[in-house]
Design a protein that fits this description.
CATH superfamily of the largest domain: Enolpyruvate transferase domain
Distance between the termini: 21 Å
Shape: globular
Strand content: 15-25%
Number of domains: 2
Radius of gyration: 22 Å
Oligomer: single chain
CATH topology of the largest domain: UDP-n-acetylglucosamine1-carboxyvinyl-transferase, Chain
CATH architecture of the largest domain: Alpha-beta prism
Amino acid sequence: MAQYVIKGSSPLVGEVVVSGAKNATLGILAAAIMSDEDVYIDNIPDVRDINAMLEAIQAIGAKVVRKDRNSVLINASSINNTKVDEKYIRKIRASYYLIGALLGKYKYANVPLPGGCDIGARPIDQHIKGFKALGADIDINGGRIIADAKRCNLTANHIYFDVVSVGATINIIMAAALTIGKTVLENAAKEPHIVDLANFLNSMGADIKGAGTDIIRINGVESLHGTEYSIIPDQIEAGTFMCAAAITRGDILVKNLIPKHMEAISAKLLEMGCEVIEFDDAIRVVGKPRQRATNIKTLPYPGFPTDMQPQITTVLSLATGTSVVVESIFENRFKYVLELARMGAEIRIEGNTAMVSGVSSLSGAELQVPDLRAGAALVLAALAANGVSTVSQIHYVERGYEHFVEKLKGLGASIELVEDEREARKLAMKVS
């Protein structure tokens, strides 16, 4: 089983270029099948989740041509099946985006219930509420969700989400885009990738206003045309490298990002005493020898993102003082804390709250990755720790970070990808 072998305690210094946003790409790839014309998308990250989505789209009959590692041409005019095969898509959470896309265009979808990381309950009740409000019949059977509007067609409606849900907002936007009439979504999510999806659909001829606010208005159109579109930079990848600078007391210029998207992360690093310098499309973070504790509460955008909670908590494990981290989105997001404790971190979990008492140093250890963002956090911990660490279950990390090892090496990290445990032990002895 592949692992990372990491020798820590060296500051990361240099420049790194952020890839396209995974979460935006997943929604946009689903939406691409809503046109019968050529759709060209670039700045897509070459990661496992994206490749799984492309395979699923191809399997239902769409033409998918990879122009290079970061661009794709999709033509969905040949789609001949609205039942998505489980083997392509079950492992990723974003499988449910195909429901909204297929329902909007074909008025029928049969899609496996989503998988992805085990970070807590992520119910799809708001998705179902939205689909039903548009007039679809919903049946959940045998681990699949079937949405059917063939008999009654879809009808525009006013929909209020009981809780803010990124996935439900994206799904209902797609379904409503091809539903004649005016659909209004209240208490909608405001994340950057929702704005990106709306911009993408509008470039195909949709009429969507208000994305990025809590009220989105969609005037349904009869059809969508082809387009060329470039994905926004990945907010979470950018934040991860910003945290890498902080935890290793390094100096990293993170390029190809949108500073507005990073405000919550930048604010917390500033509170900790890091130097944070903004440019038009880059942020430089300079870590300091002594960094202060601070408090974090994850919230929907523009609040602090839950996908950055493990990384910032890991940084706080080496800060002076006690920090309080409240996870308000996913209840199982502290699984990685047990791994940090094996490195010497002092973190106490009470329900959805972590009490982080900063320590002077971490020690290398054998680490198991429990989920995607926790994996990135454990890599950061290993880069800051004294000694050598091995990180296994790295397939989680590969789901969401493109060329992660290569990018870290470009910053001076001592990190190697090895293919099995025996090779990992040999390398660990060599570099220790």
